[in-house]
Amino acid sequence: MDRRHRKGSPKFTVLLGLQFSLAPGLPLLPSSGLQNRRLEAACLYTVGRAQNVLEALKELSRRRQFLREHAAPFSAFLTDSFGRHHSYLRISLTEKCNLRCQYCMPEEGVPLTPKADLLTTEEILTLARLFVKEGVDKIRLTGGEPLIRPDVVDIVAQLHRLEGLRTIGVTTNGINLARLLPQLQKAGLSAINISLDTLVPAKFEFIVRRKGFHKVMEGIHKAIELGYSPVKVNCVVMRGLNEDELLDFVALTEGLPLDVRFIEYMPFDGNKWNVKKMVSYKEMLDTLRQQWPELEKLPEEESSTAKTFRVPGFRGQLSFITSMSEHFCGTCNRLRITADGNLKVCLFGNSEVSLRDHLRAGASEEELLGIIGAAVGRKKRQHAGMFSISQMKNRPMILIGG
Ligand SMILES: C[S@@+](CC[C@H](N)C(=O)[O-])C[C@H]1O[C@@H](n2cnc3c(N)ncnc32)[C@H](O)[C@@H]1O
Ligand code: SF4
């Protein structure tokens, strides 16, 4: 063996480390002639691999440099001071809703903004156009309940004409979905999230304080029938309310192309949030693993807020939205516009700027971009943590648009 690679020399130690990571199947320490020869072979193998690794690293750094120099630049207005590119916009179409979910709406309801102060369809489209021009490629319509807005189909159709917009999604409680989906699909709707927190009809009425379970189920089946895949089902998990249904929800994914998304219960004004009612992702995962130890983690996009799993052999999948126990602020690419026209750069931050007022005051495109850019630039690195959020003044979820 080359004396420079003797046991104990720094190079030997490095080689052992490399061997361990690159040739884990080969023996590590010599104790006989045969083993010496095997170690020698291992060293040669390792040196060869190390050279390959160095070459690969050099190539990677050359490619990074190339991408830095040649990548299409992303809008400076939509890039925050931590380098996050905001390419995903959520627009709330209404503050109204045909349900009264306990975790979203205070029992006494919310004071609604006068109609004249809500964004008109033209204003929504003007803003959407501006954001898409700057690089937003995904818009989600939300609310309140977006499918009670009378011109929702027309809004989707108009958005569909925007060049550069790749995804138009909607988050809905599903009540009006079966009726509207064929038209929405024709208009260009490409993604659907349907909220459903229980599979027990009587419990549904208790949670959402209204009837409608069967309509939601009908909406889910219509979405599957029309080929949406996966159909995302949003389930807010609350202790004492529906955490006993996790297994039933996952069982649904055996035969249906659903992505059941278990959402950690988040604090908003008036929703009586309490840490004891929140079921963390880890706890949910433990419960599921007891039933399906073979649950496998699936890869996800960098900006995804979901941790996704699948029971091997099942058609659908399940995800966790861990906003509380493991926030995903580091890769956040979302901006929100409320129904009354405020830009909100963080779901859990109370800083807002009225785009509506500037629009109505006749601001030019450049001026609007300046205002948007300044708000995005002020976006914090991460939210303040669940306990601070629960103490903070924010809007109720229904007035933000989830
Ligand atoms: C505010 S809703 C608006 C869209 C539509 N009405 C719906 O229910 O799907 C958007 C999403 O936020 C979720 N949500 C509302 N309040 C929440 C809370 N306190 N914690 C976690 N998710 C919440 C709802 O379950 C829903 O999936
Ligand atoms: S979660 Fe959706 S359906 Fe439920 S009250 Fe809020 S806006 Fe309405």
**CATH-defined architecture:** Alpha-Beta Barrel
Bound molecules: S-adenosylmethionine, iron/sulfur cluster
Largest sheet: 12 strands, mixed
Tell me the CATH superfamily.
Aldolase class I
Number of domains: 1
CA-atom Rg in angstroms: 26 Å
Q: Note the run of SSEs as H and E.
A: HHEHEHEHEHHEHEHEEEEEEHHHH
Helix/strand/pairing category: alpha/beta
> Which fold name fills CATH's third level, the topology?
TIM Barrel
What general form does the structure show? globular
Q: Overall pLDDT, averaged? A: 84
Give the CATH level 1 class: Alpha Beta
Low-confidence stretches: 1-32
> What's the total helix number?
13
* Portion in helices: 25-40%
Number of strands: 12
- For the record, give the distance between the C-alpha atoms at the N and C termini, rounded to a whole number: 65 Å
Strand order of the largest sheet: 7-8-9-6-5-4-3-2-1-10-11-12
Share of residues in strands = 5-15%
Structure explained in plain terms:
This protein has about 400 residues and is an alpha/beta fold. The protein has a single domain (about 80-400), classed as Alpha-Beta Barrel (TIM Barrel), CATH 3.20.20. About 40% of the residues lie in helices and about 15% in strands. The protein is built from 13 helices and 12 strands. Strands 7-8-9-6-5-4-3-2-1-10-11-12 form a 12-stranded mixed beta sheet. Strand 1, helix 3 and strand 2 (about 140) form a beta-alpha-beta unit. Mean pLDDT is about 85; it is low at about 1-30. Bound molecules: S-adenosylmethionine (SAM) and iron/sulfur cluster (SF4). S-adenosylmethionine binds near residues 145 and 173.
